[in-house]
Amino acid sequence: MVQKLHDYLRESPSQTAGPYVHIGCTPNFTGIDIYGGDLGTSMKTGPVQGTEITIKGTVFDGMGAPLRDAMIEIWQPDAAGLFPSANETRGTPDPNFTGWGRSPGDMETGEFTFDTVKPGAVPYPDGRMQAPHITAWIVARGINIGLHTRIYFDDEQVANAADPVLSRIEHQNRVPTLLAKKEAAGLYRFDIHLQGPAETIFFDI
Amino acid sequence: MSLVNLPPKPGGFIPRDRTWQPDGLTPTYKTSVRRSPQAPLLSFPSTLSEETSPVFGHHLIGPLDNDLILNYAQPGQSAIGPRIIVHGRVLDELGRGVAGALVEFWQANAGGRYRHKKESYQAALDPNFGGCGRTITGADGSYEFRTIQPGPYPWPNGMNDWRPAHIHFSLFGHGFAQRLITQMYFEGDPLIKRCPIVGVLKSQEAVDALTAPLDMHQSVPMDCLAYKFDMVLRGQRQTYFENRKEGL
């Protein structure tokens, strides 16, 4: 016999966000007038530092149909690579940038939009620099546990090539599923495919 | 020469136990079949991107945000249904309370009907019930809200599938790696063991972890019953030792 690890707890099991996640997380979007507005609608509280960008995208299921009942959240550092987080110890982040966005997608098309800034680079735990990226989290009816992925940028070829995460992906032909495509100045597209030949790489992180 | 140690630093998050958490593909919950990734997830240790998280201050929360009986009701009126308090703590895997965590919750009304334009169940809407609330945990991770007990409802999956009464929860911790959405069920509900969504859980222990017991200690006499529901987020190692390459 050995001592028991009895002080440890198990993470609560995940359950699907269901078809009505918008009632709980973006109630005003569903017509429930409450709280004075939905959280995460705007990532800027004033003039921000860096390059302002817009990211648009759609989540598709395995049959190629867009999800119209998903919720997408993103989390990222500011233009200098600092997180607007209580546990950011490396410096003072942009006070007008929240770093966090939440989108229910368009009611009809499912397309999500984030008006944000191009993130700065952040080091990997071993000290190497990672390429600029945004963390994304997708929940919806039919998704039993929230899906983590990352949004990198297709105009950061040099940084992407040296990124510790992108470079260890076995099937390099899947790396483009993690790249937001520049469509115009300041406008990127990042579609998310839950299944199929273009399936987005999702992370266990 | 001094032998003073440096203070411990937060390390990475404890890896998520995928043998405990539900799989993505669970065919008896039909919608999962076309919405679950088929390739293996890419596993790697958490980085700053996952070890940081947005901050939600207590100033965010209005006085009725945690009272679903009143937060959508007309003045002088209240939502219809069994009045209950739901309370508990948000903890991490190391057993520590998670302070300052944003907890959002949503649910059907007492008849099992959601306030949503895509909802087609014939049960009546309650004009005084919106169905959502939120709060932020205290210093010990505790939270509390008041609501009405939601009703069960049928849903299109099998020919006659019903959801047990449940409340949805969305949780933030101190790192985005802790982000979690789950559901709370009620002790004694006979629909729990018949539900295909509960059925994605891999063990009775996991079902029990999402089933709140009746808590008469927190029940208010002649006013409302209470249910106690603790939730656990991923833990973060505290370590004196960092896994860094020499010279960095």
TrEMBL record, chain A:
It comes from the Bacteria. Residues 55-83 form the Intradiol ring-cleavage dioxygenases domain. InterPro entries: Intradiol_dOase_C (IPR000627), Intradiol_dOase_core (IPR015889), Intradiol_RC_Dioxygenase (IPR050770), Protocat_dOase_a (IPR012786). Keywords: Dioxygenase, Oxidoreductase. One of its GO terms (molecular function) is ferric iron binding. Pfam families: Dioxygenase_C (PF00775). The keyword Kinase does not apply. The keyword Oxidoreductase applies. PANTHER family: DIOXYGENASE, PUTATIVE (AFU_ORTHOLOGUE AFUA_2G02910)-RELATED, PROTOCATECHUATE 3,4-DIOXYGENASE ALPHA CHAIN. Belongs to the intradiol ring-cleavage dioxygenase family. This is Protocatechuate 3,4-dioxygenase alpha chain. It comes from Yoonia vestfoldensis SKA53.
TrEMBL record, chain B:
Keywords: Dioxygenase, Oxidoreductase. One of its GO terms (biological process) is 3,4-dihydroxybenzoate catabolic process. One of its GO terms (molecular function) is ferric iron binding. Residues 1-21 are annotated as: Disordered. PROSITE patterns: INTRADIOL_DIOXYGENAS. Belongs to the intradiol ring-cleavage dioxygenase family. This is Protocatechuate 3,4-dioxygenase beta chain.
